[in-house]
Amino acid sequence: MLPDGFGEVAEKLRRSTVRVLDGGRNSGGSGSGIVWDADGTVVTNAHVARTERAQVELWDGRSFSAEVAARDASSDLAKLKISAANLPAAHWRESSSLRAGELAVAIGNPLGFVGALTTGVVHGASAIRGLGRRFWVQAAIRLAPGNSGGPLADAAGRVIGVNTMVVSGGLALAIPSEAVVRFLRNGSRPVLGISVRDVPEGLLILEVNRNSTAERASLRIGDLLVGANGRRFESAADLSDALEDAAGSALKLQFRRGGQRAEREVAVVVTRARREAA
After folding, report:
1. What is the pLDDT of residues 164-177, one digit of tens each?
2. Catalytic residue among 75, 95, 148, 177
3. Which of 90, 121, 209, 230 is the most buried (most CB within 10 A)?
């Protein structure tokens, strides 16, 4: 049974939820976003805002061109800025205070339905096997394409996470609100400048960006990253976590090259990416 006054709570949350069109009105995909402050900051997923510009549509039908002011693919968050003021900003709550069984509310734009609302219950906030050490808010709630980047909120309409994906069994995962606050404060997480694929023995390097930390460390396409600072990699998320832990210092990467079984080691200095869009 929904609590008294839930309709008003839901309407306020709808007004703080936007539609995000990547690259403009007629190009790219679309998803959802959250008005984070009254002065034009919108938070969404990095996989929703893939380019330098996006289009943001507000609840009242107004549409704005948005700058992707910061984007972090490793945490799957992006910060958009629009030229607007006095916006209906969402309120947030620390996801670490959540308890299993609490009511969860998601609002977004799934499959073209603008401002669609669905409810469920919180399962918890913890790490997920195979997705590294980072925490996820987990909820039994029905999401669909277009919900990505939108709010997961509690019964009072306070944002507890940014809806991101659905895993096996239909469990929805959201980036915790605390992680969003850290991203807005610190900017993008450190990056090596590589693309990798999970393989049984580690992470296979598929691409090395020019002038990147990885290129300067002489890492090559085809190298197999097996660990960092003595900790073995089980997924790409483990590499992101290792880079975050080593921000501002040296990280010792263990890798194999050319099918050899012997491991090599290279030290890289880890620095945060610029706050601007990648």
Report:
1. 999 877 899 999 99
2. 148
3. 90
User: Is residue 249 flagged as an active site residue?
Assistant: no
Give the residue among 60, 59, 55, 108 at the shortest CA–CA distance from 83: 55
Q: What would the CATH number be for the domain defined by 95-186?
A: 2.40.10.10
Among the options 22, 72, 76, 154, which is catalytic? Answer: 76
Domain 6-81 listed as CATH 3.10.560.10: no
* pLDDT of the residue at 272: 63
Q: Which of 16, 22, 47, 75 is catalytic?
A: 47
pLDDT digits (tens, 9 = 90+) for 36-81: 999 999 999 999 998 889 999 999 999 999 999 998 888 899 999 9
- In the chain, which segments carry CATH 2.40.10.10? 6-81, 95-186
Sequence-separated (6 or more) residues with CB below 8 Å from residue 121: 100, 101, 102, 103, 104, 139, 140, 141
Let me know if 30 is a catalytic residue: no
Integer Cα distance of 254 and 232 in angstroms: 9
CATH 2.30.42.10 residue ranges in the chain? 194-269
Note the pTM of the prediction, 2 decimals.
0.78
Rounded distance, CA 271 to CA 252, Å? 14
Cα of 253 vs its chain's centroid, Å: 25
Q: What is 194-269's CATH number, 2.50.20.10, 3.30.70.980, 1.10.510.10, 2.30.42.10?
A: 2.30.42.10
